[in-house]
Fold:
Amino acid sequence: MKIAVVGSGSWGMTLAIHLLKNGHDVDVWFYLEKDFKQAQDTRELPDYLPGVVLPSELNFTMDMEKCVRDKDIILIAIPSHTVGMTLATLSNIISTESIIVNVAKGIENDSLRTMSQVIAHALPNHPVTNISTLYGPTHAEEVVKEMPSTIVAACPDEVSGKIVQKAFMSDTLRVYTNVDILGVEYGGSLKNVIAIAAGILTGMGYGDNTLAALLTRGLFEMTRLGVFLGAQEQTFAGLSGMGDLIVTCLSAHSRNRHVGFELGKGRKLKEILEEMKMVAEGINTSRSVHQLIAKTGVEMPISEQIFQVLFEEKDPRIAVEELMGRAPRQERHSLS
Structure:
């Protein structure tokens, strides 16, 4: 298959290498000229994938229109807040036959759209049956080393979902399908907010008990909002819900956990972000979740505290005290 990868960061380049090994013809679009020249000249991107040699068969370009034209699959691997504006510029270039596969995780601020909804809005003539999302517990640093990993291809159309599954499936990357694209997207996006919380707790010196409580109650919050917005409850027990939550909250590879960890040690958000080369999607998603809480009335106490820590400079210790001091209630394992 002819595949375009729009985005040359760690995850986009990892998937480009993976797809090439699967026998596909892969073009990768670069946003930054310095990264493009470095990749062309040295076949390395040490800021994103240190120690990884980029195969000579990968095609690199800074011409986005050329990259996406006449492709069977177009993989979108750019920060979530840029997806809509980027694809809008390509609305007359992308074939309606192309299957768009999004890997950016987030919920757009203000519009509160998931990424598949953002793509559908930016490409109004593109069939929604050809828009897919690929989420799951898959850090680029491990997938590129071909460590066994699993991921889910979510698409409302089973046929398109199976095409994506076949394109990405390998001996080291097992791909499942799911028609509940909303559930997969909400799970993969909301968990980044909980991952910031996990980092904060770790940075403050709390232990396993506290993290276990956070993951359990955080998953319930994610599920409660997702189901209210039309997702299926069982999806959150899967790879893009519980699976992605576990890996993002506990892994040293997680950028969202890193932001939280530094906040937990007492550093300021601006200072932390100035040092980072890659995007922590949970920061923007936290703002969207705050907006969704106001719009829907869904109770999400952990997520709301994280918003206040990020954007209102609330002391994390006060946030923990307020969460622990909430009124007693009965535990629930399901929304039904």
About this structure: The chain has 15 helices and eight strands. The chain has two domains: 2-145, 182-324. The first strand starts at residue 2 and ends at 6.
